[in-house]
Design brief:
Blueprint (H helix, E strand, L loop, with lengths): L1 H15 L5 E6 L5 E6 L4 E6 L4 E7 L4 E6 L5 E6 L4 E6 L4 E7 L4 E6 L5 E6 L4 E6 L4 E7 L4 E6 L5 E6 L12 E8 L4 E9 L4 E7 L4 E9 L14 E9 L3 E7 L10 E6 L5 E6 L4 E6 H10 L2 H6 L11 E6 L4 E6 L5 E6 L4 E6 L4 E7 L8 H10 L11 H4 L9 E3 L9 E3 L21 H5 L1 H8 L6 H13 L16 H10 L16 H4 L10 E2 L13 E2 L21 H5 L16 H11 L3
Antiparallel strand pairs: 1-2, 2-3, 3-4, 5-6, 6-7, 7-8, 9-10, 10-11, 11-12, 13-14, 14-15, 15-16, 17-18, 18-19, 19-20, 21-22, 22-23, 23-24, 25-26, 26-27, 27-28, 29-30, 31-32
Helix pairs in contact: 4-8, 9-12
């Protein structure tokens, strides 16, 4: 049956003309083969590195996100984010030999040095699964940070590093903080949570110097001050967190320059001799080369106060950045040849692999993975969405805040409304096509307005989209699909708890028998296919900083993935919406509910 499904998927891909969208790469031990994860076509592509040609393809689960070799090099592990599985591929035959169950939305899967256990980062689950490979079963889950994303085994095999794309949920409008979760692979326990101050959007980690050094790629959003400072400083810093025994404390260093930004830092690769560190910068269509000994010397020479301020010093990168290497569109994953002489770069929006000479710092060839000849409006728009070329000095693009076309889970002060006025929480873009109006106050009647003049004038402070480009961006946004809802049963039936919650959601009378006004019934405002009546409402959550208490009724599809909540992100959880922020029953009648009944309501809302 599985073989039939794979064949059907391959046939569908050929008919529909899907784009490969390569996202990660693994290189065989002898360097002869590349294994490329193609998220767009749900497959792994094997490439002859010397010839630069595709050799074989194998279908995997939905939206694969990563690929890694087993300890002995005989198998490949592919994390399938929409299937909640890890595909185990026999490298010799390039066939899927096993599917391992993981948590919600697995994003990365990496084995320990002995090949006994597989660690899987589950993005929606906010945890890391530990799977016994001999038995093929999960033995435990380790609590991770929000949006568990990427995993890296330390060079000595003793630690597993896990990153997270979302920051910790702190008090409203407080400074950001993320973490790198450090796991002892022998005891299979979390031993450290390296604090990354002011960081949100942390991607890959690299290990160097025999495991004594770790480096994380991250963004540093300045979301607590008005966006007006684009041309006076920066809104999103692009940096690295450096830590480990060779450094001690976490030190954050920028990769930006005084008048140019390289965003966002995603993939990392360290050459075998620990001489060079390469960083892919997706929106800038480039790879940054860093002289690692110079970087460490620069950090060690700094005083404690200089280390603390280093991340905000845009002149610092001149001390350790050795080159900016142009590659294809939207570079993501990186992998080095075993001798470190060639760097392979997955160009997501070009459907190609760039081959970079690591000594000369230039791309010497390009490997095509096969794609439709004609670009659709949606694909053209996707290219624009991931590009930072429209922003002032290449500052940022849509994908900086809507990470991988989703959300950054931050609230922002967008100053077109006035400084310090109308703080807004970023919203998911999935399935938004028919949910107008847009913006939290409903001031934008369509996506053309939301993504057009407003974005160009107030966000980018630079080049505007042409009418054709704007149409393409909107076409792409309208095409972004919903991820599977993990809170629904596969048969579509509700659990007993969810049924109780549904009854509360649809009730027309309070528990004492008093009728609930039509405008205060949950299912009246949250109606229709997207669970929104697309109107404005005052639900009592307005703040002194809001120009109006009226807010656009949000869609509730996959609402469980959108924390924090309310128009400004002031509610950290769904529970807080109806407790902390609903004291007078203006946002539905909930004060007559017991704790268990409120939990029932929340569990039902998660299924929408």
């Amino acid at each position: 049956m599985r073989a039939l499904l794979i064949m059907l998927c391959a046939t569908a891909t050929a008919l529909w003309g899907a784009y490969p969208s390569p996202i990660e790469i693994a290189v065989s031990a002898n360097g002869s083969r590349l294994y490329v994860v193609c998220e767009g076509t749900d497959e792994v592509v094997e490439v002859d590195a010397a010839a630069g040609t595709v050799v074989r393809r194998v279908g995997v689960g939905q939206h694969p996100k990563s690929v890694a070799f087993s300890a002995d090099g005989r198998q490949l592990y592919v994390a399938n984010s929409w299937s909640d599985t890890v595909s185990v591929i026999d490298a010799a035959s390039l066939k899927v030999v096993k599917e391992l169950a993981a948590g919600y939305e697995p994003n990365a899967a990496v084995a320990d040095l002995e090949g006994r256990f597989l660690y899987v980062a589950n993005r929606i689950g906010n945890d890391i699964s530990v799977i016994d490979l001999a038995r093929g079963v999960e033995t435990k889950r380790l609590l991770a940070g929000r949006g568990a994303a990427y995993l890296t085994l330390s060079a000595d095999g003793r630690r597993m590093y896990g990153t997270h794309i979302y920051p910790r949920l702190g008090p409203f409008r407080s400074p950001l903080e993320s973490e790198v979760t450090v796991i002892d692979t022998r005891r299979q326990v979390v031993i450290e949570r390296e604090r990354l101050p002011n960081a949100a959007g942390v991607f890959h980690v690299a290990s160097a110097n025999g495991g004594r050094l770790a480096i994380a790629a991250q963004m540093r959003p300045k979301n607590l001050i008005p966006l007006a400072h684009v041309e006076h400083g920066w809104v999103i810093g692009n940096s690295l967190s450096v830590f480990g025994a060779d450094i001690g404390e976490v030190v954050e260093v920028p990769i930006d320059e005084l008048d140019r930004y390289y965003t966002p830092p995603f993939g990392l690769a360290v050459t075998p001799g620990n001489e060079q560190l390469f960083v892919s910068t997706t929106g800038s269509d480039s790879v940054t080369a860093i002289n690692l000994p110079k970087l460490l010397a620069y950090i060690r020479a700094a005083t404690p106060e200089q280390r603390r301020l280093m991340a905000n010093d845009l002149s610092a990168s001149a001390n350790y950045v050795s080159a900016r290497i142009p590659v294809g569109r939207a570079p993501k994953g990186l992998a080095l040849s075993p001798d470190g002489k060639r760097l392979y770069v997955a160009n997501r929006m070009d459907d190609t692999i760039s081959v970079v000479d690591t000594a000369a710092h230039r791309a010497t060839s390009t490997i095509a993975l096969g794609r439709p000849v004609k670009l659709t409006p949606e694909r053209r728009g996707e290219r624009l969405f991931y590009s930072a070329r429209f922003g002032f000095q290449g500052h940022f693009g849509c994908a900086n805040c809507h990470i991988e076309a989703t959300v950054d889970e931050l609230s922002w002060d967008l100053e077109p409304d006035g400084f310090g006025v109308d703080i807004v929480e970023n919203r998911l873009l999935e399935d938004v096509a028919d949910t107008a109006p847009f913006k939290w106050n409903g001031s934008n009647p369509d996506l053309e307005t939301e993504c057009g003049p407003r974005t160009e004038k107030y966000f980018y402070r630079a080049q505007s989209y042409s009418p054709a480009e704007l149409a393409d961006v909107v076409a792409f946004i309208k095409s972004i699909p919903l991820r599977p809802n993990r809170f629904r049963r596969q048969d579509g039936e509700l659990t007993a708890q969810q049924e109780r919650g549904k009854a509360i959601f649809e009730r027309t009378r309070a528990k004492n028998g008093t009728p609930i006004d039509d405008t205060n019934q949950c299912y009246v405002c949250h109606s229709g296919p997207h669970y929104t009546d697309q109107q404005l409402a005052d639900v009592g959550t307005g703040k002194p900083t809001d120009r109006s208490p009226l807010v656009d009724v949000p869609q509730l599809t996959n609402v469980a993935l959108g924390a924090p909540y309310l128009h400004d992100g002031s509610a950290r959880t769904l529970e807080e919406i109806w407790t902390v922020f609903n004291p007078h029953d203006r946002h539905g009648v909930t004060n007559d509910l017991s704790k268990d009944e409120l939990n029932d309501l929340i569990e039902y809302v998660k299924t929408l």
